[in-house]
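Notes from hallway chat w/ T.B., transcribed later so I don't forget. T.B. wanted the structure written out for a chain they're using in a teaching module, and asked if we could keep both sequence and structure tokens in one place. Agreed to drop them here.
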Amino acid sequence: MSKEERDERAKNFIRAAIEADLAGGLKSPVVTRFPPEPNGYLHIGHAKSVCLNFGLARDFGGRTNLRFDDTNPAKEEVEYVDSIKEDVRWLGFDWEEREYYASDYFEKLYESAVALIKTGDAYVCDLTPQETREYRGTLTEPGRDSPFRGRGVAENLDLFARMRAGEFPEGGRFLRAKIDMNSPNLNMRDPALYRVKKASHHRTGDKWLIYPMYDYAHCVSDAIEGVTHSICTLEFEDHRPLYDWVLEKLAWPAPRPRQIEFARLNLEHTLMSKRKLLELVREKIVDGWDDPRLPTLAATRRRGTPPEALRLFCERIGVAKKDSWIELEWLEKAIRDVLNPIVPRVLAVLDPLKVILEDIPPGEIRETEAPFFPDEPGKFGFRGARLSREIFIERDDFQLEPARGFRRLAPQREALLRWACYVKCESVEMGPDGRPALLRCVTLERPSEAAGGKRAQRPGVIHWVSRDYSTPIVARLYDRLFRVPRPSGDFATELNPESLVTREDARIEGAIATFRPGDRYQFERLGYFVVDRDSPEPPGKPVFNRIVPLKDSWAKSQKS
């Protein structure tokens, strides 16, 4: 992508809004924030927000805060805090010393709530959750005032203090903003600001027995930190009036934070719901939060995706005002574009079919050289390829009865062994399972000529490994977790039964002698692979995860 194309894609409505604010007199540096709730692992959708917030602040010479929205202790864990920090760093961003928590502001948030009570803008309500829903009304019917809406300031202050002291059970009382029960925006119909929650907090312990609601803590925390632009996803658009209302009622000095919404990332063949992802993990449908089939950043990292590819993907899809679905091919294309110039090529066979080259005597080796980068032979050098009497080829590179257009190996047909020579299949031995078990072939310096002096259809090129000069490996072929492009979360009908296919008998050429977790290779014709982080030490078999195939084969496979 050229600089002009990058600049054009970088022009979006959020950037335009910030430029307008600066042109209108905003003097403070641009300050954004990434505010994850530590109740799960970050996923690719969060990567878009991370890249957007840190990228905008960087481009305008500002800064980005990392703030954990830890206002619901019942669902939050230190494990999630640590994973979030690891993921943001892995993506390539640094919040420096600006690591904040909503819990840092609990006292200030409480004092601000007291200030709203004193100005008559908040009250303690005794309605049950069910009654609250009934009083709220609907999109077509106005709400009704709570019978406790008229309480005086002194009574509300007393009740709120007693809520903090733990005198009331969970769900017994809550603090509400006093706005307008007839508002067409349901979020403005006296929303909750505080609720009683008797749960131990991972940072404050048992000090607090009431906790602020997100809509309230969010705007006040932004204001405390001097955030200039609070970038949120579209589901918060209807919450923006409440955001502004709270800061206005608190008479927060200018410049106040400005909330701007953008469309969240919906990626086909996967889910971005933390609740659904947690369900997949807890029901052991996947093997933990870093199972490479998941869209979590931990899983994406383990699968071998480089962070540069995620940043490129986020740059390419841009920023929109309307929710939409992005094809998974966009992500896979970005991964391939990043890996292609940096990952060396090697030969590997995932589903081996044994071949005996009859004209090569036992023990004889034919040496040849192969470049790690065929398009740039001088890049990264060459490795030796050793052709011996017994080799393995990919099982689907042979057909007993070749289909029309099939150019690889078949009885009395020829094919080119990559970087070596031509071979011709003389005979086939079948196994007890009714499949070919052994091919007997001979080598050729060049393909045969057809009758009449015309060359036959040019043989296809196949990959191979020597039996004696290759290393057994385990190959995990990861694919889409869901069969359907836009899953609803119905695991019984939508999961892809072939989202993980394991090849226990795969082999990689012997020129690669050592395997370290994180090493990436392109298996020629097969895809990009990475050595898994839990790959065993020798003499155990190295485990390779497929990152992406060399091209999109999903659509074709679904039509067949």
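Follow-up for T.B.: Confidence is low (pLDDT under 50) at residues 450-455, 554-560. Might be a good example for the class.
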